[in-house]
Amino acid sequence: MTNQKQPTAQDLDTLSRQLGRPVRDVAEIGARCVCGNPLVATTAPRLSNGIPFPTTFYLSHPHATAAASRLENAGVMDDMTQRLADDAELAQAYRSAHEQYLSARARVGEAAGVGPVPEIAGITAGGMPERVKCVHVLVGHALAEGPGANPLGDEALAMMRDEFDPTVCRCEGAWNIEGDAPQKDLSRHTRRLRRAGKTNPIQYDEAGTGPVAAIDAGTNSIRLLIARETKEGIEELHRDMRIVRLGQGVDETGEFAPEALERTFAAVDEYAREITRHGAHPTRFIATSASRDVSNRDEFVSGIRQRLHATPEVVSGEVEAQLTFSGAASALDTSSWDRPVRVAVVDLGGGSTEIVLGTIDPGDGTAQITAQTSMDVGCVRFHERYQFDDPPTQQQITAAQNDLTQRLAELAPDEFDFTNLDAVVGVAGTITTITAAALGLESYDPEAIHGVEIDIEQLAETAQQLIGETTTERSQYGFMHEGRIDVIGAGAVIWAQLLDHIRTATNNTVTTAITSEKDILDGIALSLLR
């Protein structure tokens, strides 16, 4: 058997197929078949929905679970329990197995970022240390921790040898490999909680609403929002942003750089601790479109699932547009309107820029999307594609502008009708940073930035200033995140040109732009809460 412990995306799908339900909170692969398939799932001692979980080593292989069940049906558990009462040496070895199990669980909990779980302190599984009530647990323990860790687990494995032998591969035909891996948990516990309108009772308040966690992983940054819904509206409990440059070099290599994955996983480790601290569930992780096509996608997916027990989603353009639009809409005051307000929302990211056209009903705030597009245009992508100098040359700036002009010209005019717009709302770090500069802020202040309306002419002047500055000059701004210092010039080129395009299309009807601190991240949270 291989000693590889870290689960891959394929391992997690295999476990889900073996168990017939989505696998939960796997920290390691405790044991493998000689062919590499999982035999035991090592599970975090607290599930991501907050429930304590004492069964650290979960037997998953169908042949192993079937053989263990037959031993239980044959009365082996009663015989083992009686021997514990009669054999002091065996009883002591079994108690040592109990202590070893607790020690292993502590190690797994620490590695998974869960830490101690007071609700199950001193409690193991399978009836240890005084009796036997589950052969599956003892066999899982023996397989994961090796011979001698659990004497009765070793005995059970020996008795199962004709039906299940970890040194002999019997995986072919043992579980269904057709179609997608199970996505819905149909366990009695899950069905009962869903009927009650909850996922986990210990993390819900009296109103039955618990916090949720939303994560948006873009080309340049990764962000976390933990929020809950109250009678007064959405309450923000925690918000964080880290520059990780996940898309570093993807255009050139077709894969996530090792150092980019390392930075991303380090940020996600911190996020996992915050999510656990707030008892947030569920977690929804929306990933950059690059994660669909990169050659090392499995490494990224398994790394996220191991840390968050949530699978990164690369959502369709339609879903992304809806999430972005609903999040950004809160920045626009529609109270004075007596008809639906026609709005363009621009989300300028590191690797792509999304433009969403839609209307907002001033009565109830509902949004109706009429068109959306995602262009391979972003601050990181343009900075790398046109190799911006410090500062960029006019030739480099013009090349980027020509690229964007061509992409805008390719938009279907009957679908992307900018001429009748009432407002434009900009979101994401490039736009909020340019806004901070236009406002002359000494430090980054989300409250001052959110909802502010600034003349397009002033934003264009600010953009030109940032484009022409060196990275040393930009680094002196208190509002400038260090991860944006080098790429903000490319982002400023894009934002200034987009605003000029909209102003011209509306024949100077739209002469201002509104900046929103609420974007797809808030839309993700809303999708979970509502």
Label this structure with key terms:
530 residues, alpha+beta, Nucleotidyltransferase, domain 5, 6-stranded mixed sheet, 13 strands
What does this structure look like?
- The protein is of the alpha+beta class and 530 residues long.
- It has 3 domains: 9-188, no CATH class; 212-308, ATPase, nucleotide binding domain (Nucleotidyltransferase, domain 5, 2-Layer Sandwich), CATH 3.30.420.40; 331-519, 2-Layer Sandwich (Nucleotidyltransferase, domain 5), CATH 3.30.420.
- Helices cover 42% and strands 16% of the residues.
- The protein is built from 20 helices and 13 strands.
- The protein has helices at residues 9-19, 62-73, 76-86, 88-111, 135-145, 151-159, 188-195, 250-253, 258-278, 290-293, 297-308, 317-328, 379-385, 394-409, 429-439, 446-449, 456-468, 471-474, 488-505, 520-529, and strands at 26-32, 38-43, 57-59, 212-217, 221-230, 233-243, 283-287, 341-348, 353-360, 367-375, 423-427, 453-455, 512-516.
- It has a 6-stranded mixed sheet, with helices on both faces.
